[in-house]
Every structure is written in C-alpha cells, then in structure tokens.
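Ticket #185: bound-state structure for adenosine-5'-diphosphate.
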Amino acid sequence: MSLVEITDLEKSYKVGEMDVPVLKGIDLDIDEGEFVALMGPSGCGKSTLMNILGCLDRPSKGRVLLNRQDLSLLSDHELARIRRDEIGFVFQTFNLIGRMSNLKNVELPMTLQETARDVRRDRAKELLESVGLGHRLDYSPSNLSGESDRGWRSLELSPTIHRSSSPMSPPETSIRRAQKRSSIS
Ligand SMILES: Nc1ncnc2c1ncn2[C@@H]1O[C@H](COP(=O)(O)OP(=O)(O)O)[C@@H](O)[C@H]1O
Ligand SMILES: [Mg+2]
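RESOLUTION: The complex was predicted; output attached.
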C-alpha cells in the first residue's frame, strides 16, 4: 500500500456565489521513501493540493489516504494530530520564532508532543549538530544564514512526510509527475 493514495480528488473554492473548480479529478500514489516534486505553472493548483495533503484544507470530493488514514473521515482535531506527528513542513519563509533560541525552535514540535524535557533537548542538540549548527544552539535564528536554516526545523520528529513548498536536494532524488486522470486546471 502507498503512503499517499489520492483518488479522483476535486477541490473548488467558493468565490462570492460561484464555485471555482481548481483540482478536477487527481489520482496520485506516492510510495514510502519516494521523493516527489510537484511541478506546474503558477495558479495551476500545486498549493491547493499540498494544503490538502498537509491536512490544512479538505477536498471538495474524492478520497485521500495518508498513511492508510482516510482524511475525509477525520475530525479537525485528528487532522491537527497528523500535522503535528506525521508531517514535516518546510516553508519558503522559515517561520522560526525570533525570540526563541535555535535549540528551543527545534524543540518546539516535541514540546507540543509533550516529549520529556531532557529527551527533547538531547534530540534537538543532536539534530542541530547533524547539520553543523552545534555551535549555534543558544543563538537567535536571525543570526543564521539563509542556507543553514532552510529545512532544519522540520528535522526534529523524523516525520513520515516532508512537505516542502520549495525544492530541496536530498541525496536520492527521484522526480515523478502526478498521474492525472484529467488534469490540474
Ligand atoms: N482560498 C482561495 N479562494 C479562492 N481561490 C483560491 C484560493 N486559493 C487559491 N485559489 C485559486 O486557485 C487557483 C490555484 O491556486 P494555487 O493552488 O495557489 O496555485 P499554485 O500553488 O499552483 O500557484 C488559483 O487560480 C488561485 O487564485
Ligand atoms: Mg503555490
């Protein structure tokens, strides 16, 4: 079974009185360990699809299975739990909290998971050291250069899915196109 299974996904936005269709019947399977880049012109619906996959928005129609869970059957609270525990978000803007140290920033999701203080501190240190930031634990994120803070916030929980809004370069990169029964508008 795939990690992500999308079947006949549709999404429309309500603009005034009108329903504006954006995703019109998307089928997409993503296996565990696969690295996927979603490509298309501006406005074609990439963010719309990523928001649904990231449990930030809901489909208008169709089925989305994430790690065997049917997202349409889950409550907002359960979707929040998936966002917290199973998805690593890498935003174009880093959304780091300036008044917290680098260490505390990396600890934050583990704090929300109520991980014991010592455990999350050790894990956060280990992760910052692994990306060469072991000497910057107590610094504010505003002192980091752009390339060094990219993505490290999403490292802390080894989540099932890394959702990125801009390309990264993992060692093994395979790109495949979304299998579309019809197409993204
Ligand atoms: N919240 C919204 N309400 C109404 N229309 C939206 C909303 N979000 C996106 N759209 C429209 O949906 C289409 C796809 O947008 P988006 O998914 O952001 O595209 P992409 O990420 O590929 O640039 C665009 O025409 C955009 O204007
Ligand atoms: Mg976008």
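RESOLUTION NOTES: The chain has two domains: 4-91+164-184, 102-149.
TICKET STATUS: resolved
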